[in-house]
Description:
It comes from Vreelandella sulfidaeris. The chain is mainly α.
Amino acid sequence: xxxxxxxxxxxxxxxxxxxxxxxxxxxxxxxxxxxxxxxxxxxxxxxxxxxxxxxxxxxxxxxxxxxxxxxxxxxxxxxxxxxxxxxxxxxxxxxxxxxxxxxxxxxxxxxxxxxxxxxxxxxxxxxxxxxxxxxxxxxxxxxxxxxxxxxxxxxxxxxxxxxxxxxxxxxxxxxxxxxxxxxxxxxxxxxxxxxxxxxxxxxxxxxxxxxxxxxxxxxxxxxx
Length: 224
Ligand SMILES: Nc1nc2c(ncn2[C@@H]2O[C@H](COP(=O)(O)OP(=O)(O)OP(=O)(O)O)[C@@H](O)[C@H]2O)c(=O)[nH]1
Ligand SMILES: [Mg+2]
């Protein structure tokens, strides 16, 4: 993922985990490098932007070394902009999460939901589990097998994207059976881990191939 961003002009990608303060310390220096010459008595002004619930405020707290911004494992925790100065002549602005006004592409919508960027009430979470299970099985079979202590995964079968799944109800259990594991385990993970960092969601598995839909996600979110 770093390569994709790094290939763009005036852009640098840095994979960090918000709890790893040693990695975070690289960020002010990188900001100065990107900003170029700034008067010695001025800060570099930085906006932290990205999709909801992706770790922007946690990143700011980590950079500031204290809890300034409110955080939480749900979208729209940050309601307004908040500015904070940190060491190294950097002024950070936290911002509310942003999404496209309308997400036309169903696959993108389900990926966003899987990361927690979309409220539980706005999308059918069983469908999210189905699509996410299938995508993980396809892209990260080893990680999935390890996480859920599975002996093996059956051959990949594309799920029916659930925009028509309600019309064709039986496809849900079919897919879960074909996949050979219980997609509800993923749902239970989401429920059990609410309020805590969710390692599979924003961690050792990156659900989003950047070209799919997420090029605007906060760079800090896919690292650990
Ligand atoms: N696994 C993991 N979880 C993280 C990381 N950074 C933040 N989180 C968790 O992600 C959740 C969301 O964090 P926030 O900082 O509130 O996210 P945000 O992007 O500010 O969210 P909004 O303000 O709602 O847009 C919290 O439960 C954090 O503990 C990380 O590096 N790894
Ligand atoms: Mg926030």
